[in-house]
Design a protein that fits this description.
binds magnesium ion, 16 strands, 2 domains, BirA Bifunctional Protein, domain 2, binds 4-amino-1,4-dioxobutan-2-aminium adenosine-5'-monophosphate, alpha+beta, 8-stranded mixed β-sheet, 5-stranded mixed barrel, 478 residues
């Protein structure tokens, strides 16, 4: 018999047909004559109800079927008597792959806290919440490749091990094969990295951008989509030490083209989720509603699907950093000293400021441009005022910064001057500077934090819950 996925069966229910299904038991309840087993195979948030006759299978055999037992079941689909599903499966044969001790299995068929599930991250995929999150994450990864493919972008695999610090922020994980106890030393007593595997100090990359620029200035439009690593000691609900980033880089794009692409890209991905992940979104929406029940009305977020539609249907607000500082300074929130961090032209905006602009002031996603050069990376194009750069950050409700990007400085002399000012090693970056020496062009790009985006789409509150195996300070168990 041909195996069918539960999703297929429920999408196109055919009472009378014979099927084979395989999966894991979610619940079992029984009466004297029949047992009702709900089976999930990961293909959908929904379960298939299996009806097993006690006389046919025997009490002894059915006793071993518990939550998380793995089964193969054949039988006939019939119209369901109960509500909740159109069809159920009358079991003819049941093969039990693996038993599960119901007293020891940590994921009981009841509501567990997300904290508890994080401690059992190896099994949390078996819950409705996490299976929904990871199906959506998969769909979004697919939609990203599809989007760029349709637009003629080339997927470029930039290196994970690198000798350069793209953002110039220095929060990198060292990669070395030197003996940690007794590393070779130079005459001056420093670690001698010329004896290391790559004959130089190397790290895990914080961004594929610089290598991406090499690709874009030949292939036209490229994107990267890979893991990036930051050794910053940020223990927040929005930071990971290992996260995935999507970085498109486009020759001949100015900042406006860059903003247009970012907005279209985000909207197109969300539209894809609405069209292809509806069941999972619906489930996550009810989960969120449940979670926020106790909160006062004004702290409850917009219903998840409404919120996604809202973002697709409305233009993002675009304004300058300088205008944003004015808005913040004139706000009642500021006057009542409710911001924890200072608001002053020149300081970096904190998540609380970003969220105020998006959630309280504009009530829409915001693209901020024209940041002071001092708080941004060396490669951003200097504006004519000599004070600000052609940076753009896209700010989202509940998240704050979801995208960071810019038009790049294409002028060799200006770029070298910025690098010197910011103590970026010009010699080591000769290969990057060559793009500006040989046929330089205006170009732009941005980086979308994949997990931050998945947070937004799923309505989850903690970034550790939208990546399969979170890496944060002190945590790398699974
Ligand atoms: O703003 P960032 O640092 O920009 C860059 O890395 C540029 N090279 C991108 C480019 O222009 N090609 O990071 C981009 C995005 C942020 O907006 C945020 O969404 C995400 O990456 N991000 C993180 N996500 C999770 N954990 C962290 N520690 C993150 N740091 C940045
Ligand atoms: Mg940034």
């Amino acid at each position: 018999m041909i195996r069918k996925k539960v999703k297929e069966i429920l999408q196109n229910p055919q009472p009378g047909s014979e099927v084979l299904v395989k999966g894991w038991v979610r619940t079992k309840r029984g009466s004297k004559n029949v047992n009702f087993i709900t089976l999930n195979d990961g293909s959908t948030i929904h379960n298939l109800q299996i009806v097993a006759n006690v006389e046919t299978f025997g009490e002894e055999f059915l006793k071993d079927i518990n939550t998380s037992t793995s089964l193969a079941v054949t039988g006939q689909l019939v119209e369901s008597q109960g509500s909740g599903q159109q069809v159920e499966l009358i079991a003819q044969t049941i093969h039990l792959y693996g038993k599960s001790d119901p007293d020891k299995y940590p994921i009981q068929p009841k509501k567990h806290s997300l904290e508890f599930l994080r401690e059992n991250a190896h099994l949390r995929f078996r819950t409705n919440t996490f299976s929904a999150v990871f199906r959506i994450r998969h769909a979004m990864a697919f939609a990203i490749h599809d989007y760029f493919n349709r637009k003629g972008f080339c997927y470029l695999h930039t290196p994970i091990i690198t000798a350069s610090d793209a953002e110039g922020a220095g929060q990198m994980f060292r990669v070395t094969t030197l003996d940690a106890q007794k590393p070779p030393l130079t005459e001056a007593g420093h670690v001698d990295f010329s004896a290391d595997f790559f004959s130089r100090p190397t790290n895990l990359t914080v961004s594929g951008q610089l290598e991406g620029e090499l690709g874009a200035t030949a292939l036209g439009e490229i994107y990267t989509f890979g893991p990036t690593f930051r050794a910053e000691n940020s223990n927040t609900t929005r930071h990971l030490a290992e996260f995935w980033m999507i970085e498109p880089e486009m020759a001949f794009y100015d900042l406006k083209d860059n903003m247009d692409l970012a907005e279209d890209f985000l909207k197109s991905l969300i539209r894809y989720a609405l069209e292809n992940c509806y069941d999972d979104l619906k489930f996550l929406s009810s989960r969120l509603k449940e979670e926020e029940k106790g909160k006062p009305q004004d702290q409850q977020s917009m219903e998840l699907i409404e919120k996604l539609k809202f973002v697709v249907e409305n233009d993002f607000v675009r304004l300058s950093y300088t205008e944003a500082i004015d808005i913040l300074k004139n706000s009642n929130h500021y006057k009542k000293k409710k911001f924890q961090f200072p608001v002053e032209w020149g300081v970096d905006l904190q998540s609380e400021h970003e969220r105020y602009l998006v959630e309280k002031h504009f009530k829409k996603p915001v693209i901020l441009i024209g940041y002071p050069k001092e708080i941004k990376a060396f490669y951003m194009k200097l504006n004519e005022d000599g004070k600000t750069v052609a940076a753009m950050d896209v700010l989202f409700p509940q998240i704050g910064e979801i995208i960071g990007g810019s038009q790049r400085e294409e002028n060799y002399d200006k770029l070298v001057a910025r690098m010197n000012e910011m103590h970026i090693p010009v010699d080591e970056m000769w290969w990057y500077l060559d793009t500006r020496r040989f046929g330089t062009v205006p170009h732009s790009g941005f980086g979308l934090g994949f997990e931050r985006f998945i947070l937004f789409v799923t309505g989850m509150g903690n970034i550790r819950d939208v990546i399969a195996f979170p890496r944060t300070p002190g945590n790398a168990e699974f």
